[in-house]
Amino acid sequence: MKYLSGVTQKADLTIAEILTGDYAGKDVKVRGTIHNIRDMGDVAFIVLRRRDGLVQCVYEPDQSSFDIRTLKEADALEAEGIVQPEKRAPHGFELRLRKADILSRAAETVPLQINKRKLSTSLETKLNHRAVSLRNPRERAVFRIQEGITRGFRDFLYQQGFTEIHTPKLGAKSAEGGANLFKLEYFHTPAILQQSPQFYKQMMVGVFDRVFETAPVFRAEKHNTKRHLNEYTSLDFEMGFIDGFEDIMEMESGFLQYTMKLLKESYGKELEILGITLPSVDKIPAVRFDEAKRLVSEKYDRKFRNPFDLEPEEEILIGKYFKEEYDSDFVFVTHYPSKKRPFYAMDDPEDPTYTLSFDLLFRGLEITTGGQRIHDYHHLMKKIENRGMETEGMEHYLDAFKYGMPPHGGLGIGLERLTMQLIGEDNVREATLFPRDMSRLEP
Q1: Out of 5, 222, 235, 439, which residue is the most buried by the measure of CB atoms under 10 Å away?
Q2: Threshold 0.90, pTM exceeds
């Protein structure tokens, strides 16, 4: 009979363990994948790739008990040698090899030059070989930054008393409505993939007061742009007993402040690899929708046709305006027209043609949509009636309001868009692990 009692200490060390321990001049074991081999004749450098970075190993024929010709790039290796300080090596040390055991051999030559600082290949090629291209330290760093954003979202909201929930992605009715739905058959019953967790978030506000979720959402929009995906990750929260939609914007501002601090403290290596300067989020300006339109129209002498929404060029110019005038990379645009917001959006009591809602623009791109919701059952039913909507499929959602709901609101943040803007890329697919768009279902 064998019993397991938890994680045991392995004989091989990580980079972090070597850096924090007293290992200079001592014999250690390190496991990793061969990232690069540079054979200089009388000496060779074997660079191993680990989850926490690169380890430079020095091969000397008279000191090493193996033949370097037996190794090739992408082999998995257990290396043993002496730790020596070396300022020119990654992390300031190298391993003077004594022996190496091959743990697994690569069956074929790697199709991309992942050992270069930056991959010199097209985005399409990178996506076609995604599991390989992400082995490049710079490509991988993007998704470490994305991890930091998600971690910041979770950690901050836990601190603010939120409960994490997990809502279904299969449903009978969409919270957003419209025709842009992925429809499917669910045991001979029509079903859809959810466009957002909106209905479930609101229902759970009546249970937990404050809830959040990080999960995929699906949009069957026939866009083929650099900013759209058909499946993306949404960072959602909903909070009850609010005084107004400003509470939602303040909570998002707090999340951004917490996350930028976390990235600076815990993801400095990735920030350096990607050359990222974190934006200031101490103060984020807010401007009304109609005022934002007027400001950019006057300053940049542009006329826009759509009075009910922001065109992409308008978003860019609003971002430019607030960077030039207020040195801010972020701006909240508030009070969107009711005509362009979902039925559950709370109308502005001072002017019902506008809503108590907002978008957050980051460097001229919308990354968040949120606002205050209608919490009164009769008010909600009146809005549904005025829009000529049917309530079929929304019975369970509406039941929650029949039995009382607190004043509440929330938002959804596009994780990939936020990551894209933060790392300074111009295509959201660069910040998506395995993109799904009109032309891509693989890998």
Answers
A1: 235
A2: yes
